[in-house]
Amino acid sequence: CFHWLFQDIFNSVIAALFLLVVCLFAIIVKSNTGTLAGGVLGLILLVLCVVDAVLLYKKISLGRPRGRNAPAK
């Protein structure tokens, strides 16, 4: 029942959730400055995963024609 075009979006959302959990643990524990820096950089990656999911959602064309013969916007 899951449309195959949404696999990339699903992958980005799962990666973002995983990064959220790992980065929050790294920031909360912050045993040294490297762990804190890794948590902050991971949060930046989290934002990039969310942006990727949004851009993929906008790019998917369910009702529009596909291929090279599709009219330009």
TrEMBL record:
<protein>
    <submittedName>
        <fullName>CKLF factor</fullName>
    </submittedName>
</protein>
<feature type="transmembrane region" description="Helical">
    <location>
        <begin position="35"/>
        <end position="57"/>
    </location>
</feature>
<keyword id="KW-0472">Membrane</keyword>
<feature type="transmembrane region" description="Helical">
    <location>
        <begin position="9"/>
        <end position="29"/>
    </location>
</feature>
<keyword id="KW-0812">Transmembrane</keyword>
<keyword id="KW-1133">Transmembrane helix</keyword>
